[in-house]
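Hey L., structure's done. Input below.
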Amino acid sequence: MARLLTVAAVQRLRPTTQRREIRDGGAPGLYLVIQSSGHKSWAMRVSRVDGRSAKLTLGPCDLTGRDPDGEPVLGGPLSLSAARILCVNLSRQRTAGIDVASLTHQKRERVLKDPDQGTFAATAKEFIADHARPKNRGWRATAKVLGLNYPAHGEPTLVRGGLCERWAAKPIAEIDALSLYSVVEEARRHAIPGTSARRAGVSDPRGRAMAGALGKLFSWATQHHRVVTNPTVGMFRPKSSKSRHRVLEPSEVAKLWKACDDIGWPFGPCLQLLLITGARRGEVAGMRWDELSADLSTWDLPPARTKNKLPHSLTLPPMAREIIAAAPRIQGGPFVFTTNASTTISGFSKIKRRLDSMMNIAPWRVHDLRRTAVTMMAEIGILPHVIEAVVNHISGHKGGVAGTYNRAQYAAEKRTALKRWAAHVENLTADRPAKVVPIKTPRRR
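Output:
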């Protein structure tokens, strides 16, 4: 039986391990939804004109105790009283024979086609097309944080419950610093709007992702005179994570290699290649056949695929070539590591959990493989400037003025270094004493 909720009760109700729906007796079909992450929202159950049932997500639960001016808006933050008013209004439309569920779906579809460029949704779409997509490799992730989902082909769609749906018709010039702070805190404490939190509790990285996406959007909007002032200037941003220093031990490298063999294609070989090359995860996961020479001896990364926007070339050791040669050519697709020929692999977090259960070692991250490669290359005597050239990292020997004038690519040195490093990895993973390959230094004349 539905009970009459109070503001205090809504604030007091706590999440459980399962998603909860609590019916409110103050309006027909109104429910308080509490996710396991703690995020609270309002939903309404209605019957369509044809008799089928449907559920409408009305908007996130506003726990500030303030009621908005004017009529409550579908998709916006709603207090208890605002949710009841909106629910009653929708019920009246339903009684009049209007298919409310269909109307809200049509409204979401119209938002991205609306010629009015002053709304948040239209401005966000323009920002992605004009700035993020051509300049940032991670533009799809930025778009999703803002509430836009871009498929591999076709037009973008609104993320259900995301910012672009919530602020679909809201003029971007009316979004103030308080609204932005509330969204950043929502992402930090619960989840990014329109997504489910991977784990419960406060997450500073989620808050930073939201603050970063909004900062880029409003900086662009200010430069292009969509807004007069930038409301994100001085906005709260969660602190960055502490720098990590985790390096896998030789025994842990051996465990990782065996676990990757057991997991198999495509993630196992991909992670093994990450360790051998010291490259970044996105570079290896996105490896294309047209970046490789016919005999797989050379890997040429274009500027668009590197973090520093500089071309990067590696002569691959035999161990790496064997891994790539074993990759199946799935339907002639462009990617080496793929399962469907059209997209690169994803879902590393799930694979990482499997590896953890198999390896039973201290906590580590996939990026630690790059740090492990760099550290162990130094330990076997490879010079720092050669290691930096191998991993395409500009600092130290090629930073600042030195980098401006030193354009050497160290091709021969990189080839020798990777050969030595691969031999060292092979010795570690073969469970026998490491045999270090000496560097042959050219005799100076």
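The longest helix spans residues 204-223. Confidence is low (pLDDT under 50) at residues 397-407, 432-437.

-- N.
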